[in-house]
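Saturday, quiet lab. Running sequence design on the structure tokens for the scaffold JK sent over.
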């Protein structure tokens, strides 16, 4: 049995969770709170104290993309990667663009966009310029035909489903402009298509449940 550790507000946690559900692999979830001191037990599983990570009969594994590619190899059916080497490389390329060149860039805005903090005007301007460049580059790669890599649902779609809305919301809140939509990316229709999948429905329902619970705790404090 696989144990998935992390929390449902993490897009990377939810990417791994989607893959587990898509694969039909049995797993249990273990909640790890955000922030605070990291236990030695956690650091033995994830040396940087990051989530998600998994525990298996063979040991622990961290980094979401490493985990999902392990799951693909562990349970090849149904496939979430193309059979050919080139196709697999193109899926990895898309995941890198979504996570490294889009979500990780806009993540610098999260303190102000989502957590009541502040981001300097200089950083906002820098992020906006970089994000505009990277979105244009992403458009050259993404097929949306109807899925990110083409006709088949892949790991790239698991990454995009949990990250593209954050890119759109973060830019909308800070700049007053959904930069994905402004660039001509119909990400909302794409997300609605993915939402038809049971894996996406479960991930979203669990995330919303925990968001509401967190709001209730804050309201009672």
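Result came back. Writing it out in full:
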């Amino acid at each position: 049995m696989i144990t998935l550790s992390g929390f449902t507000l993490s897009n990377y946690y939810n990417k791994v969770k989607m893959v587990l559900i898509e694969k039909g692999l049995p797993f249990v979830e273990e909640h790890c709170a955000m922030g605070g001191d990291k236990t030695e037990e956690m650091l033995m599983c994830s040396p940087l104290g990051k989530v998600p990570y998994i525990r298996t009969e063979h040991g622990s594994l961290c980094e979401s993309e490493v985990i999902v590619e392990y799951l693909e190899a562990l349970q090849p059916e149904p496939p979430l990667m193309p059979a050919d080497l080139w196709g697999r490389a193109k899926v990895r390329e898309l995941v890198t663009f979504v996570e490294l060149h889009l979500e990780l860039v806009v993540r610098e805005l999260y303190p102000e966009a989502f957590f009541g903090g502040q981001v300097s005007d200089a950083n906002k301007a820098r992020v906006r310029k970089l994000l505009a460049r990277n979105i244009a580059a992403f458009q050259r790669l993404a097929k949306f035909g109807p899925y990110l890599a083409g006709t088949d649902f892949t790991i790239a779609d698991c990454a995009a489903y949990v990250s593209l809305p954050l890119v759109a919301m973060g830019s909308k809140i800070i700049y007053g402009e959904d930069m994905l939509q402004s660039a001509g990316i119909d990400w909302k229709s794409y997300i609605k298509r993915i939402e038809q999948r049971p894996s996406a429905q479960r991930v979203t329902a669990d995330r919303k449940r925990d968001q509401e619970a967190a709001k209730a705790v804050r309201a009672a404090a």
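Notes for JK: The longest helix spans residues 198-220. The longest strand covers residues 2-6. Ask whether to fix the surface positions before the next round.
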